[in-house]
Amino acid sequence: VSDKTLNFFKLYQVEKNHNITLDLTFTTKPECSQTFWLVLCYRMEDKKVLYQYVDVGSNKVSESQDEQFSGRVLFDQDLLRKGRIRLHVYSLKMEDSGFYVCKLTIGLIYKRKYTIKINLL
């Protein structure tokens, strides 16, 4: 296990008012503590949070997002422990275009960083 963050890039192209599913995969290692999970996705230019999920010991879960995305993002929580981050974003607007960063942290040492570009056509 390494404390180095691995980086990945994905490009999505979609039409205005359409929906998109951001699907990111990862592999965990048994030696990584799975009592703390953090998924944080935000737009790079203004740091607006597309979605944030925090799970501490499966007891305390918090979710948050910027009001720009309120009611338009669905997170498939059940897939997280199976190695997938899946976010459904509905009714895309022109202001949703841009670069996003999604960070995954499991325990103290497992980290992944995904850079996503959403182009609206």
UniProtKB/TrEMBL annotation:
Source domain of life: Eukaryota
InterPro entries to which the protein is assigned, alphabetical: Ig-like_dom_sf (IPR036179), Ig-like_fold (IPR013783), Ig_V-set (IPR013106)
Pfam annotation, one family: V-set
Residue ranges of domain Immunoglobulin V-set in the record: 13-104
Entries under SUPFAM superfamilies matching the protein: Immunoglobulin
Name recorded for this polypeptide: Immunoglobulin V-set domain-containing protein
